[in-house]
Amino acid sequence: MHTLDYNLGLLAPLGIDDAPPRLHLELPPAADEGARQLLQLCKIDKQFVIFHPGSARAEKFWEAARWAEIIERTRRKWGVEVAITGGTGKVEQKNIRAIKRKAGGEIADLSGKTDLLTLAALIKRARLLVTVDSAAMHLAAAQGTPQVALFGPTNPFHWRPRESPALILLGESPVPLSEFSPKRERLPMGQISTDAVFNAMDSLLSAPAAQFS
Question: In sequence order, what are the residues at sequence separation of 6 or more whose Cβ sits closer than 8 angstroms to the Cβ of residue 114?
């Protein structure tokens, strides 16, 4: 079972059998204002893409050089602003610093500058989220933000976003997954190619964009 279905099933003994499976997150005005202020501080006043490379588990990390390449290719092709989000953990911050060193140009580094709700508000405003299996992925799913999600040591059958426009990459496949299995080997993140990520982004960014506000 998908984790969402499993948790909803736990409600049945309580007599709750009509809980909707669709995620929805109602953000307080303070979160939206915090996101607006951060974007203003970073001088982001047009459509932007969020890259969320981190997780509490380092085994989910994708190589810093590959993140940097994708960021540069994103700028060249679509001319959008880019921002990095993430937590304050030492390992995660070290990874983000490596990405910034390898990527040319200025990157709006918002990692460690948001609480969970402000991060959700930023993701809500973004044109696209590119992330590993993380909390950011679920925040995007709850708000319908298009995303590309990179999986390796965790099985997307159980954890993938099902609501937002989402493309799931796993292993050496050059195209996003279309079939999911409850039994799957753990795969190293290094098997995911930059071309697979870029092509998945292209298919989502080529769709009509939501109005930036």
Answer: 34, 35, 38, 85, 122
E strands in 26-176 = 48-52, 81-84, 108-109, 128-132, 147-151, 166-170
Reported as a single tens digit per residue, the pLDDT across 76-98 is 999 899 999 999 999 999 999 99
Longest dimension (CA), the chain: 56
**DSSP character for 60?**
G
Task: Convert the pLDDT of each residue in 58-69 to its tens digit.
Answer: 999 999 999 999
Domains of the chain as residue ranges with CATH: 30-205 (3.40.50.2000)
Amino acid identity for residue 97 in this structure:
R
**What does pTM read for this prediction?**
0.91
Cβ-contact 129, 52 below 8 angstroms: yes
